[in-house]
Design goal:
HTH_TetR, DNA binding, Homeodomain-like_sf, TetR-like_HI_0893_C, mainly alpha, 9 helices
Length: 186
């Protein structure tokens, strides 16, 4: 693991444990075993570190999801794989997901360029637009549909974390809640 990766890993755990404001950069550098000046070489400000970590995690999650949906043909199968992969990623990467939750509820979100946010959402928005155009999905604004999907997935994730089901029961809940979501959208 290189220095930048060690800094990101240390920051991830400290931010989740102590929050953004209660985690000084000196503590992150110390936890990573790196000089404080080296941290600022990679990330000129703490804000840069926070946003870089968020973008890194978003990209990792997007890559994992893309791998799961690449061989799916129908809109239903693509949406189901997307939903399932998103929830499984969140359950397998609890610390990363908690950081992303913190970030999305913080002022840091406004520091991400609108085009970066749009780039992350665009593949799913395109799927939804195609589904609406082909009359598979109800004719609603795709941003509203995306909000419903992400809110639904977030709530289901919270439910699964709280219940701490074994994997077969998690899979059953994920399938059931996807079916409910699909019925609502179609």
């Amino acid at each position: 693991m290189d220095k930048r990766e060690r800094l990101l890993e240390a920051a991830l755990h400290l931010f989740v444990e102590h929050g953004f404001h209660n985690t000084p950069t000196s503590k992150i550098a110390r936890e990573a075993g790196i000089a404080n000046g080296t941290l600022f070489y990679f990330f000129p400000t703490k804000d840069d570190l926070v946003t870089a970590l968020y973008l890194e995690l978003k990209n990792r999650m997007a890559q994992d999801i893309a791998g799961e949906i690449q061989n799916k043909d129908t809109l239903h199968d693509i949406m189901e794989a997307y939903y399932t992969a998103s929830l499984n990623w969140a359950l397998q990467h609890k610390t990363e997901f908690r950081f992303m939750e913190q970030f999305n509820s913080s002022p840091y979100l406004k520091q991400i360029a609108e085009e970066e946010i749009r780039r992350n959402k665009q593949p799913l928005l395109n799927l939804l637009q195609d589904g609406i155009k082909n009359q598979i999905i109800k004719p609603l604004d795709e941003e509203i549909i995306l909000t419903l999907i992400t809110g639904h997935a977030f709530s289901v994730n919270q439910y699964l974390i709280t219940k701490q089901f074994e994997k077969p029961k998690q899979d059953q809940v994920i399938q059931l809640t996807f079916d409910l979501l699909w019925d609502m959208l179609t």
